[in-house]
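Hi there,

I know you've been waiting on this one. I reran it after we fixed the sequence typo, so this is the corrected version. Both the input and the resulting structure follow.
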Amino acid sequence: EGRELLPFAESLALSATSFERRALGTASLAGTVRVSAPPVLVTHFLVQQLPALAEKHPEICVELSADRREANLLRGDVEIVLRIGAVEVPPDLIVRKVGRVGYGLYGTPSLLAEAQKGRAFVAFDETMRGTAQKEWLEARAAGERVTFRSNDLFAHYQAARVGLGIALLPHFMLEPGDGLAPFTLGTPPFERDLSLIVHPDVRRSARVTAVSRHLRQVIQSHAKRLTTPRALRESRAPKRAR
């Protein structure tokens, strides 16, 4: 009996979600917009870009979900999804590439100075099997010593800072005074697409439109920070006249 009723229950659930999305489209600017993004993008980039949005639209509350898993837009879990890398989504959703994210190898200067004697790397664990960053790193660190594994980029960042090994990190994650320096292998740079995904039903919502527009603008205005190593950004920055 339960199996016979299940299709009707699923249909009701989808209808309710569709109703909520359409109601959101007719709602006022005030309210909450839920955004899902990778944890490292949330903590090291997105939160820093929200004060300008809050000043312009104080009536909007942004709810940021730091998650690597695919948020279900069709089910109405969130209104906006940001993803790094290739994404496969149902045809009902709208995917827009809004930028690129560059990665580089980083380690402490003392560790890099000893790299010729034998390199030590920070690697991704098996939960990251099949991901582009794991495959890229394994191809370039094949046969080298691995001292630490994790599926968390912040753990990789901290491991590199304490000298456990050389880590593959997004450029925007590096901060002044963190004690990390770039390590070059002479290979082409590793970059991945940054995509913004929404359901077409919520595009009519004033607050969703305001948040998605702000996200696109800050990603485009910080393109160099997202794709270029910090050392190169600083060396190219115009010097102030004394």
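Quick highlight: Residues 2-25 form the longest helix (24 residues).

Best,
R. S.
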